[in-house]
Write a structure and sequence with these properties.
heterodimer; A: mainly alpha; Helix Hairpins; minor pseudopilin epsh fold; 2 domains; 3-stranded antiparallel β-sheet; 9 helices; 3 strands; about 55% helix; globular; B: mainly alpha; Superoxide dismutase (chain A); Mn/Fe_SOD_N_sf (chain A); metal ion binding (chain A); superoxide dismutase activity (chain A); Mn/Fe_SOD_BS (chain A)
């Protein structure tokens, strides 16, 4: 946790600030909302939609570091809490999960399978598809890409980092064990809050 | 047809202090071994028969033409098996390795990059800037020229039609985090710099000679 936050997260923050400055956006992108908007335009590795930044190297720096720092790691750290301190998912959240997957267990299986099956570095997300009737979905992104860059309106509410740095010291190659253990630290009220916000923001 | 995990050409602690023995052990017995298991599963399954009798190196070249049902699995696991087998072969224990290039390889490095130093700088940049998981390579292209590149995940330059710059690798470096995390954590540039102390330039020279005449690097990929 210490390495992840103090080294990786800090490094991304530094690089993002440098990239924003180089793009002349340091005074413009000053809030999380502004950063998310920028990331949605910058596009994922496949390239999609218009981009506010002409230079591909700068676009890549922002996609990688902007996605890496705020949206992904912020969300990741905020998604967690000490084991045993989170209540179970509320009725509101449970119903939304049931709606998307049939049951909590089915969602958990789908999420865990996506996490263990992701090849290379990336993230797994539980998200609300606000462009698709607010359906709950499990989706993955490679490297530090964000889910709404590839498909607009997919708002992550829970994320799991499966880059090896997120688990190697304790679990080495045993990613399935890490994924299983991680469920014990999920902060469900936080997930619900993000769910409600996503639905309301896009109402 | 099934591949076997090739034995490491040296002891797990042979590359200390540059690469720690725990990493070498887990890297070889867990990560590499998993790729061997997985590629064997694909070969034994449906459509795997089309790869029967091919060497591991030849399989890399075939990836682009494989049916969708097995293409990704072969790219990832077959690539992983080749890459790691190759990786063990280019390293060796200090004192038993040629620490600098000589002969043809030396002249080619100098004429292509200016100096060994310049080549290493370019290689280090490719290795440090490969975002996410992947590899950095020194390879020979179809025109016999040396070039440096990096690839994502378990792709390698032999995968024509898949990679931007195809060629025959003569040197490669794993920059997946599992290759360095226990000792170096996020300090990838430090890992890269240390790793050069384990490179055996005699092996690289042999790889270079083979590549120039259209051959492939010679390393052990035993069958089970």
């Amino acid at each position: 946790m210490k390495l992840h936050h103090d080294k990786h997260f800090a490094a991304y923050t530094k690089k993002l600030n440098a990239a924003l400055a180089a793009a002349g956006l340091a005074d413009v992108v000053t809030t999380e909302g502004a950063l998310r908007k920028l990331l949605a335009n910058v596009g994922s590795a496949g390239g999609r939609g218009g981009s506010a930044i002409a230079d591909p190297a700068l676009r890549a720096a922002i996609r990688n570091n902007g996605g890496g720092v705020h949206v992904n790691h912020q969300l990741f750290f905020r998604s967690m809490t000490a084991p045993g301190t989170s209540p179970a998912p509320s009725v509101v959240l449970s119903e939304a999960i049931d709606g998307g997957f049939g049951s909590f267990d089915k969602m958990r299986s789908a999420f865990s399978a996506a996490a263990t099956g992701l090849f290379g570095s990336g993230w797994v997300w539980l998200a609300v598809d606000t462009a698709g009737g607010n359906r709950m979905v499990v989706t993955t992104t490679a490297n530090q890409d964000v889910p709404y860059a590839a498909k607009a309106g997919v708002v992550p509410i829970l994320g799991l980092d499966v880059w090896e740095h997120a688990y190697y010291v304790q679990y080495q190659n045993r990613r399935p064990e890490y994924v299983e253990a991680w469920w014990s630290v999920v902060d469900w009220p936080g997930v619900e809050k993000r769910y409600t916000e996503a639905v309301e923001e896009n109402a | 047809m099934a591949f076997a995990l090739p034995p490491l050409p040296y002891a797990y602690d042979a590359l200390e202090p540059y690469i720690d023995s725990t990493t070498m052990n887990i890297h070889h017995t867990k990560h590499h071994n998993t790729y061997v298991t997985n590629v064997n599963n694909v070969l034994a399954g449906e459509n795997g028969g089309s790869l029967k009798g091919l060497s591991l190196s030849a399989i890399q070249k075939e990836v682009v033409s494989l049916p969708d049902s097995i293409k990704t699995a072969v790219r990832n696991s077959g690539g992983g098996h080749w890459n790691h087998s190759f990786f063990w072969s280019v390293m060796g224990k200090t004192g038993s390795i040629a620490e600098a290039p000589s002969g043809d390889l030396k002249s080619s490095i100098e004429s292509t990059f200016g100096s060994l130093d310049e080549m290493q700088k370019k290689f280090n940049t490719a290795a440090a800037t490969r975002f996410g998981s992947g590899w950095a390579w020194l390879s020979v292209n179809a025109d016999g020229q040396l070039f440096i590149s990096s690839t994502p995940n378990q792709d390698n330059p032999l995968m024509e039609g898949i990679v931007d710059q195809p060629g025959t690798p003569i040197l490669g470096l794993d920059v997946w985090e599992h290759a360095y995390y226990l000792k170096y954590q996020n300090r990838r540039p430090e890992y890269i710099a240390s790793w050069w102390k384990t490179v055996d330039f005699d092996v690289i020279a042999k790889n270079y000679t083979a590549a120039k005449s259209g051959g492939l690097p010679a390393f052990d990929t035993p069958l089970a």
